[in-house]
UniProtKB/TrEMBL annotation:
NCBIfam families: Rid family detoxifying hydrolase (TIGR00004). Gene3D superfamilies: RutC-like. Belongs to the RutC family. One of its GO terms (cellular component) is mitochondrion. Residues 44-63 are annotated as: Disordered. This is Uncharacterized protein. SUPFAM superfamilies: YjgF-like. Transmembrane segments: none annotated. Signal peptide: none annotated. GO terms for molecular function: deaminase activity.
Length: 184
């Protein structure tokens, strides 16, 4: 089996032949760090000599609820559950029944976005309290303070990590879109 070798150390670290046993790798492990000579071959893809690290991942499961706006067919999912996490697509301030943007200002729109996220998270078997990361997209960074007034009411003492960026335009010319990641 070939082994990853850091390029800076290439001249001083021996490589192992394809099919080298765990014992051969272990015999070198006392001289070289384990991250250079992994002892398990289960983390590598064996297709056509490509020994690329592969994450161990369970299947992914789409989440769909009628309590949030429907996604565009064949384009994206409302959310995906994978490996104990839920990855929620961006929510815009759309009414899930009429499939139209709700009227109002950035504060009303922020409430609706988070309401939509909450419905999707609930359908996935989790909640806003288990959100660990949020991305907020604003059409105008001048709305930042007013959006934050509403946003800050939704999480307790431990706030999720968050990124907020201004973008040129958002779908349906709305002023805010919010996506999140939560644990199950």
């Amino acid at each position: 089996m070939q082994v990853y070798i850091q390029s800076a150390a290439r001249a001083t670290i021996p490589t192992l032949r394809r099919g080298a046993s765990l014992q051969a790798r272990a015999s070198l492990s006392h001289r070289f760090p384990a991250f250079i000579f992994p002892l398990s071959s289960s983390h590598f893809s064996s297709s056509s000599n490509n020994l690329t690290p592969q994450p161990k991942m369970s299947g992914k499961e789409p989440v769909l609820t009628s309590n949030a706006p429907k996604p565009l067919p064949g384009i994206y999912s409302q959310a995906i559950k994978a490996n104990g996490m839920v990855f929620v697509s961006g929510a815009v301030p759309m009414d899930p029944v009429t499939m139209e943007l709700i009227p109002g200002d950035i504060q009303a729109h922020t409430h609706q976005c988070i309401k939509n996220l909450s419905a999707i998270l609930e359908a996935a078997g989790t909640s806003l309290e288990k959100v660990v990361k949020v991305n907020v997209f604003l059409a105008d960074m001048g709305d930042f303070a007013k959006m934050n007034e509403v946003y800050s009411t939704y999480w307790g003492d431990v706030k999720p990590c968050r990124t907020c960026v201004a973008v040129k335009t958002l779908p349906l010319n709305t002023d805010v879109e919010i996506e999140c990641t939560a644990v199950l």
